[in-house]
Amino acid sequence: MPERIARGAWPHAPLTLAEVESHLTKLIQQHKWFPREYEPHREGQPVHEGGTIEHQGPDRYVYRAARAHPIRPYELAQSVERIFSTADDAARHYLKWDLNLPGDLDGWKVIE
């Protein structure tokens, strides 16, 4: 970080939520899975938390997510599947519910 500051590369200008959403929408349209292929929970294995988006067709995007039990991390507490007709809607949902944006994105400030 000190090197970035010395070079004037930090702090960087904030990103707009619209820019991030636009970029994610393109990725979702170009790839079958984002950010990784969905794997259903197997009993006795740790729960892989977080959402995935599967591009199933021109107007079908499936968002899936799972959450572990707060006390027993090998037990599934909740899973959800939601279908979107546009990549834009799927991206917007992912950014809000998985990345809690607008806000901080790995050190980048994302604003409305």
Could you give a short description of this structure?
By secondary structure, this protein is an alpha+beta fold. The protein contains 3 helices and 7 strands; from the N terminus they run αβαββββαββ.
Task: Present the secondary structure layout.
Layout lengths: L1 H5 L8 E2 H14 L2 E2 L15 E8 L2 E9 L7 E9 L2 H11 L5 E3 L2 E4 L1
Parallel strand pairs: 1-7
Antiparallel strand pairs: 2-3, 3-4, 4-5, 6-7
Helix pairs in contact: 2-3
Structure description:
This protein is of the alpha+beta class. It has one domain (2-111). Helix content is 27%, strand content 33%. It contains 3 helices and 7 strands; from the N terminus they run H-E-H-E-E-E-E-H-E-E. It has helices at residues 2-6, 17-30, 87-97; strands spanning 15-16, 33-34, 50-57, 60-68, 76-84, 103-105, 108-111. Strands 2-3-4-5 form a 4-stranded antiparallel β-sheet, covered by helices on one side. The protein has a 3-stranded mixed β-sheet with strand order 1-7-6. Helix 2 packs across helix 3 (87-97).
Keywords:
4-stranded antiparallel beta sheet; 112 residues; 27% helix; 3-stranded mixed beta sheet; 3 helices; alpha+beta
Which outline best applies?
globular
Q: Kindly provide the radius of gyration, computed on alpha-carbon positions and rounded to a whole number of angstroms.
A: 17 Å
Give the biggest sheet.
Answer: 4 strands, antiparallel
Number of helices: 3
* Cα end-to-end separation: 26 Å
Strand order of the largest sheet: 2-3-4-5
Number of domains: 1
* Helix/strand/pairing category: alpha+beta
Task: Please provide the count of β strands.
Answer: 7
Share in β-strands: 25-35%
Average the pLDDT over all residues and give the rounded result.
91
Q: Could you spell the SSE succession in H and E letters? A: HEHEEEEHEE
Low-confidence stretches: none
* Helical percentage: 25-40%
